[in-house]
Amino acid sequence: MPSPKGPPELKHLDHVLVTPSAIKRRIGTLADQLNHDYAHKDMMVVAIVNGALIFAADLLRALRTPLRLDCLRASSYHSSTKAVGEPRIVDQMKLDVRGHNVLLVDDILDTGKTLAAVAGMIHAKGAATVRTCVLLDKKARRAVPFEADYVGFEIPNEFVVGYGLDFNERYRNLPCIGVLKPKYYAGL
């Protein structure tokens, strides 16, 4: 249940799905896997922001392999609680991915459309390898056949916010991942 010492928006959560301590532990495990898989390889991390910003920052601090970082913006929600239409690449990457081992980092994999489109774009630009790492996997919403290579948590088909995930650009700063009460997004 929400703590009176946390951000006031904690009271907007129906319940906490993933605690801050569980997130921290799982990021450590993901980093161990990545450190092993990318040992002796240069890595280019491409984070899809704004959603993956907090997850990517915590993950990057735990990586021990040489890396470069770039970001891009992609949008598929457009102020809704469900992905609508095709994803749009709003802001392109600045670094050349040609010949690099790219790790694409995102906050959540649900329909798969955004990650499939971005991974395809990066591959088409000549990346040596393209792998994906997501904090959350919502398999019940999958609309295209796409699976992430590294997954933090598989979650049920509920509308979640916190730890970078938002609704109308709110709730990103919550330290946990929680299910938003419908009254805060109903009617959209």
Model description:
The chain has 188 residues and is an alpha/beta fold. The chain has a single domain (25-156), classed as Rossmann fold, CATH 3.40.50. 21% of the residues lie in helices and 29% in strands. The chain has three helices and nine strands, in the order βαβαβββαββββ. The strands form two sheets. It has a six-stranded mixed beta sheet, sandwiched between helices. A three-stranded antiparallel beta sheet has the order 1-9-8, with helices on one face. α1 packs across α2. The two termini are 26 Å apart.
How are the elements arranged and paired?
Elements: E1 13-18, H1 20-37, E2 43-49, H2 53-61, E3 67-75, E4 88-91, E5 101-109, H3 113-124, E6 129-137, E7 150-154, E8 160-161, E9 177-180
Parallel strand pairs: 2-3, 2-5, 5-6, 6-7
Antiparallel strand pairs: 1-9, 3-4, 8-9
Helix pairs in contact: 1-2
Gist?
Helix content is 21%, strand content 29%. The protein has 3 helices and 9 strands. The longest helix is centred in the N-terminal third of the chain and has 18 residues, at 20-37.
Helix content: 10-25%
**Structure summary, number of beta strands:** 9
Number of separate domains: 1
Q: Spell out the helices and strands N to C.
A: EHEHEEEHEEEE
Task: Write down the Rg.
Answer: 16 Å
Shape: globular
Structural class: alpha/beta
The N- to C-terminal Cα distance equals: 26 Å
Oligomer description: single chain
Going by CATH, the architecture would be: 3-Layer(aba) Sandwich
Mean pLDDT comes to: 90
Strand fraction: 25-35%
CATH class: Alpha Beta
Largest sheet: 6 strands, mixed
Fold-level CATH name: Rossmann fold
Describe the strand arrangement of the main beta sheet, using strand numbers: 4-3-2-5-6-7
- Per DSSP, the total helix count is 3
Poorly predicted spans = none
